[in-house]
Each structure stands twice: as structure tokens, then as C-alpha cells.
Amino acid sequence: MMDHDPPFQDLHVKARFEALPEPARTGLLRLRRLIFQVARELPEVGRLEETLKWGQPAYLTPDTKSGSTIRLGLPKTGGFAIYTHCQTSLISDFRGIFRDHFEYEGNRAVHFRDADAIQPEKVRMLISRALTYHLKTSVD
User: For residue 70, with 0-12 CB atoms within 10 Å meaning exposed, 13-18 middle and 19 or more buried, which class applies?
Assistant: First the structure.
């Protein structure tokens, strides 16, 4: 397991993170590290691509197409968030398990106020399910 930030392969993504205000940058970098850790632990995911989508850091599985895109960003309400595609069941399934543990934005995001609110052991489940979303024949 990686306990450091993976290097940036895209200078535009790096610049986007550098432009983020604190403390959101610290929280989003923790989520980024967690995404890379989970991807590395799931061989079926293959290579993880980090790019910008809608001006936000986004994480895709271009070779295996196993996952649904994960994005990181700043919601209008403050703090920072991890986003999934709103037409998937990812957030609603996650909310069903951890209803009172996080703040949610419909079926598209989990919001955080600070980096200590991430609860990595729980958020890993969301990331894992997103990175393998298209491998599932049904969602339990």
C-alpha cells in the first residue's frame, strides 16, 4: 500500500491541485492518494488515468473500462467532495450503508468539511465499487 502521494503524470492536473485553496487541497490530495491505493489493490482495474473533466481531477480506467469515472472537486456549499456519475447507483448504495456518516449531494457526491472527516476505511468501499462498477452484473 502506498502511503505517499503518487507523482502527477499530467501537469494540468498538478496545476489544478496547486490552485486549490486550503484546507480543501489537503483533503482532496488525501482522496487522490486513496483512489490510487485502491486502484493498485484491484488488478482487474488496470491502469488508472488521471485527467481533468469539467475542470476537476478525474480518475478513469481506460484500458479495462472496469470503472465509472470518479471526480474530485469543490462543491458550491464549501468543503470538498468526491463525485461519481449521477446515473449510477454508487452514491445511493453507499448512503444506504453509511447514511449518517457523511453529507451527500443527491446521487452524485459525498461532501467533506475537512480532511479528518474522510474516514478512509469507509470511503475505500465507494472508490472500490466505482473503479469496478462495470464489472458487476448486478448491484446488491
Answer: buried
Please tell me the distance from the alpha carbon of residue 94 to that of residue 115, in angstroms, as a whole number: 19
Give CA separation, 89 vs 92, 110, 140, in Å.
5, 13, 10
Per-residue pLDDT of the chain (140 residues; tens, 9 = 90+): 445 789 998 999 999 999 999 999 999 999 999 999 999 999 999 999 999 999 999 999 999 999 999 999 999 999 999 999 999 999 999 999 999 999 999 999 999 999 999 999 999 999 999 999 999 744 44
Q: Are 74 and 99 in contact (CB under 8 A)?
A: no
Q: pTM here?
A: 0.93
Judge whether 27 and 67 are in contact, CB under 8 Å.
no
Residues 6+ apart with CB under 8 A from 92: 107
Round to whole Å and give the CA distance between 16 and 2.
22
